[in-house]
Structure formats: structure tokens, C-alpha cells
Design a protein that fits this description.
Blueprint: E1 2-4, E2 13-16, E3 19-29, E4 37-44, E5 50-56, E6 60-64, E7 67-77, E8 80-85, E9 91-95, H1 96-99, E10 111-117, E11 120-125, E12 129-137, E13 151-155, E14 160-163, E15 172-176, E16 181-185
Antiparallel strand pairs: 1-6, 2-3, 2-6, 3-4, 4-5, 7-8, 7-10, 8-9, 10-11, 12-13, 12-15, 13-14, 15-16
Length: about 190
């Protein structure tokens, strides 16, 4: 779908110079001389590189819509992670490098969204939060107040997070998958 260069918004996926890019930042600028333009910071979906491009309103760019399907995480096999399409039951393997840091949060049976273009997976989206158990938590240091202090803890997946003093080993907590931060104690 062709759109005007000044209609590009944050989050739009466009085809530019034969590659797929996602708009990370946009800024509409109207200089004193000349026509207005849209300054867009683009991130390459396959390579992760970034570039800045100026689009004038007269320019047309191709907006791309990605296919997003729910896949269930099944198991790890060597350096690959195996997922199953929730609708067709077809299995796909994605490398741990492709999944990146999100692999730390994968749990058996977890449903994730895989974004693809023309059948080729481009990215994976986890649920906003996951529940994990704490395997090790430092004891509370006497004299610290509960409102301002956090202590380090190790989760069942080996990841380290900062938690409030009242959290102890064996407790299950909710973790934000975007910034890897403590949200709250899990309700049992």
C-alpha cells in the first residue's frame, strides 16, 4: 500500500531501498525555505541497523503489513527453538540468535506471536509479563526501608533482577518482559 512520505508514523513497517524497515522516531519539520518534510529514524527488521531518512510529502513509500500468528513454544533442540502454529499445528524452528534475549523467558506451552512477511519470520513478541520463581534472594540488610530499597535475586531461568526486601527464595513473581523488571508478587 503506497502512502505519502509525510504519513509515516512510529511503528509503521515500510519497504525502503529493497529492505523492510520499522519507523522508530518521526519528526515533522517545516523549514523557513523549501517544503515541509518528515524526518524518520528507521530500523532494519532483519539486520537491526538504523538510518535517518527525509521524506517529502510528494514522495510515496510502500507501507507493509506483517502477518502475526500465535505460536506455542514446544522445546529447545540444540541451538534451535521449536514452535507450533496454533491454527495449522505446523512446526517451525527458530534459532536462539534470532529470538535473542526473549529466549530467557520462554516456558513450555507459552504462546507467543511470530511476525512474518511473505512466510519469512521477522520477529517474535512475548506476553507482556511472565511468572517465574526465585531460586536465590539475598537476605534483607537491617536498617533499610521497604519503600526505597531493592535487593538482588536470581530467577529459575538464571536471570538476575532487583526485588523488594519482602521477596524471598521460593516465591513466584511477575516480571515485565520488555525491561526485565519486577512487577509484583504472583497471586497463587
Amino acid at each position: 500500500m503506497k502512502i505519502s512520505g509525510n504519513a509515516v508514523r512510529v511503528g509503521n513497517v515500510i519497504e525502503y531501498e529493497g529492505r523492510l524497515w520499522v519507523a522508530v522516531k518521526t519528526q515533522h519539520t517545516q523549514p523557513g525555505k523549501g517544503g515541509a518534510y518528515m524526518q524518520v529514524e528507521l530500523k532494519n527488521l532483519t539486520e537491526g541497523t538504523k538510518t535517518n531518512v527525509r521524506f517529502r510529502s510528494a514522495e510515496q513509500v510502500e507501507r507493509v503489513f506483517l502477518d502475526e500468528h500465535p505460536y506455542q513454544y514446544l522445546y529447545a533442540e540444540g541451538n534451535d527453538l521449536v514452535f507450533m502454529d496454533q491454527e495449522t499445528f505446523e512446526q517451525i524452528s527458530l534459532s536462539k540468535d534470532f529470538v535473542g534475549e526473549a529466549a530467557d523467558f520462554l516456558q513450555d506451552g507459552m504462546v507467543v506471536n511470530v511476525c512474518s512477511y511473505e512466510g519469512k519470520p521477522l520477529s517474535i513478541h512475548l506476553p507482556d509479563t511472565v511468572i517465574l520463581e526465585i531460586t536465590q534472594a539475598d537476605p534483607v540488610v537491617k536498617g533499610q526501608t521497604a519503600s526505597s530499597s531493592f535487593k538482588p535475586a536470581v530467577l529459575e531461568n538464571g536471570m538476575r533482577v532487583m526485588v523488594p526486601p519482602h521477596i524471598e527464595s521460593g516465591m513466584r513473581i511477575v516480571i515485565n518482559t520488555d525491561d526485565r523488571s519486577y512487577v509484583e508478587r504472583a497471586k497463587d
